[in-house]
Amino acid sequence: ATIPKGRGTSTLFSASSIGDRGFFGHSWGNIGKVRYQSSLRSTSGANNYPYTLGNLSGTLSGNSFNDLTYLQSFKGKLSKWDWQSTLWYTQSEKDNSGSVLTPNYINHLEDEVLRFKYALRNRSNQWQVYLSNEWQAYTDTNSSWIIQDTNRYSQATLQYSYRTEDQELFITANYFSADGSNRNAHAFLPHVLYNLRLSKNDKMVLKGAGYQNNAHVGAHYVRTTARGNFQNQFALGTYYRLPTLNELYWNPGGNPALDPERSYGMKYSICREGSLRINLTTDQLYYDRMIQWTPGASGNWSPQNYYSVYTSSTTMTLARNWARFNANMNLTHQYSRVLATMNNDPAIVGKSLIYRPVLQAVYTSEFKLARGTLQLRGFYTGLRHTLRDNSPVGEISAQYWCALAYTLSGANNRWNLLLQVDNVFNNERQYYQYFPMPGRSYLINLKLNSKR
Description:
This protein has one helix and 28 strands.
């Protein structure tokens, strides 16, 4: 966590019309030659709101939440070494009622996490230690039987890194431990990452990991060039993703025989600086052995190296600034096709991946008034499939909405006020099928800053 310069405090209060409340307190400064920062964040909400989905209407309830996070960080110098330590503590509870078709089922999650990180570095070398311990309790009533889980998850990581102008080396040793009613597993996972600058424009990235007594390697080549206001970057390589501990050892359903996901592909980007800023990025990837949770013979879902998939995504950003007006447009196009499955299921081969809209768009404009700033944001999310066979029964129609915000500050930025109307036209929206998002809602934020 970066410690701000100087000395100061800030306090933020927030409230919304659907019952959300928030507080964030932040202070920073120095004790002798040691820099510090402390922060406390608390959020809670009843999260109750009316909804309309086609011919369904009512009030969504059973989705209350609260969380508390404390952070303490110190930074100083020891001889020729810089050091920094950070401690986080988070406690949270969350209810989830899921679909409006099953309104009386409530899933309850309690989570408590303690994390600590210590870093020691000089000009080229850095040592870093990361420790975490998480306790989690979960009650699921949205099934044919009531599931009550209590689990613990621990991580210990030691990392050494070496940096020069032309190369970077990261050696990481991870030890994971998971136990409780649904997991009982321990894993040692070493990682190595090496970045080598071959020339002014060319770079090679090598990555490797030890997993289940085997070594897995990824590598990609990056070339960057610039001409006038334009910069181009091209990358080509192979990548991997290791299975998570839940995918390996969750009980019931974990699969210790999983192989890592493997992908091959290229990425190209071009950007233009100036009064009109343009950024275009596209990537093409082929995934082999993509991990998916599938129904097993016992009725429990289990992860399998199930898919071979082709994906393509293209993102374009246009931005222009005038004296009192700024505008930004972001467009993302996604394409995916399942090329094969573990059992070559004809209902799935040739279909799109779920929850990947073909088109997404975000438009933002800001107009500086004589007093304050007015911001308009528009959002569009295209049709999404929720069933692997892409059946129309599981489609979530395209949805669009906009938000209007007004910000004002005074007393030399000692206070900042935000007033926002979300979903101005009360459009129908869904997180996922039959789980509606809020209609029109109102938010107010007040931030108080000390004199620096």
